Amino acid sequence: MQRYMKSDMPFHGVAKPARDVLVRQLPALTSRTEWLDVIRRLWREAQYREERYVALDLLRRYPRWQELDLLPLYEEFVVTGAWWDYVDELASRHVGSLLMAQRSAVTPVMREWAVDEDRWKRRVAVICQLGAKGETDLRLLSFAIEANVTDTDFFLRKGIGWALRQYARVDAEWVRAFVADHPELSGLSRREALKHIS
């Protein structure tokens, strides 16, 4: 697992199905303060990668406590996690949910992240709307992609293609036109974007 993830942090070797069973057996957390304390400690004091996975599992387990004030915590996890397994979970499930619930507050932050020096924050800005479907903010999506379209980073190129491919399920013509209008898109982004468009 460590070799597959190219991780400096070691693994216990607990696969996701077994981890899910263990997380479901944890005692319920009774306050938001306790929940945040547990998550922060799991993340910051982690010696094994699964401890950070459990922190993300606990974030997902208590959706009623997901509020705008968590955005700086998500940013911390994106920057310190700095790898696709953590970042994609945070982008699609957590940052994306906040964006959908608090567009006026989160959209400007995503525009800032789209041009940040940190490539993982930029990837979040690109893929944070994967689950938005017909509610996708096309101006934000276009801005995030265009801000990163010439970057040679594999994860950004892949993320751009993924975001476009996902939106193509809603509006394939928009994606086809976007790709045609952006010849500077990498081959990887282009292939991913058009993968399921006949």
UniProtKB/TrEMBL annotation:
It holds the Pfam family DNA_alkylation. InterPro entries: ARM-type_fold, DNA_alkylation. SUPFAM superfamilies: ARM repeat (SSF48371). This is 3-methyladenine DNA glycosylase AlkD. It comes from Actinokineospora diospyrosa.
